[in-house]
Amino acid sequence: DRSIKIAPSILSADFADFGREIRAIEAEGADWVHVDVMDGHFVPNLTFGPPAVKAFRPHVKTVMDVHLMIAPVDPWIDAYADAGADVLTAHLEAGPHIHRTLQAIRAAGMKAGVALNPATPADAVAHLLDLADLVLVMTVNPGFGGQKFIDMTGKIRALRAMIGDRPVHIQVDGGVDPVTAPLVAGAGADVLVAGSAVFRGGSVDNPAVYGDNIRAI
Ligand code: DX5
Ligand code: ZN
């Protein structure tokens, strides 16, 4: 389906070669570039922060989609705007004021996303749908690439019905591969994040594999 966008997660890329990795996945057909920011506090893993994301910016010609797995979020919003994020997604579970956070992300000039951990129900975003450009449905517990897919198709269907004709993307992240992608797309997701399923078997020196993997999803 041409309306489905694939957003490779550079969490599965070579951390010593992000610029080339980003250029490779875009040349091989990535629609968006998904950037996983982890703080070692909200999730039990640590990746990179605003200076690194700013360094990625000139390499991204499509959409730089930044998934914050950090708490708190609000003190960092301006730094990610300055870093050049197009979409900035915060977890609903990261603090008591997600409504304020989404307002602040838009006020800083970015598209606003709200992410839901597997245990968080679809209803939690009922009062946020006019403030969000994207709802991210996690299909793993956030923190690591390469985990087993958790079936959230019921949540995706519920969100699609709640969203109605609003221009809100449903993004899915975690364990997306050629087997699970049709399930989540069939339930109504339109932006599919994939890390290990895109990068496995390839490298910056053999990026054609990335293209084959993207087309297989
Ligand atoms: C997990 C991250 C994901 C991760 C997905 O916490 O948010 O973006 O990179 O990796 P895969 O596709 O390997 O499950
Ligand atoms: Zn992610």
In short:
The protein is of the alpha/beta class and 217 residues long.
Could you characterize the architecture of this molecule?
The chain is of the alpha/beta class and 217 residues long. It has a single domain (5-216), classed as TIM Barrel, CATH 3.20.20.70. The protein contains 8 helices and 8 strands, in the order βαβαβαβαββαβαβαα. The protein has helices spanning 18-27, 50-56, 77-83, 98-107, 153-163, 181-187, 196-199, 208-216; strands spanning 5-8, 33-38, 64-69, 87-91, 111-116, 134-138, 169-173, 191-194. Strands 1-8-7-6-5-4-3-2 form an 8-stranded parallel sheet. α2 runs parallel beside α3 (77-83). It is globular. The protein starts with a strand and ends with a helix. Bound molecules: D-xylitol-5-phosphate (DX5) and zinc ion (ZN). Residues 9, 11-12, 34, 36, 67, 140, 142-147, 173-176, 193-197 line the site of D-xylitol-5-phosphate (DX5).
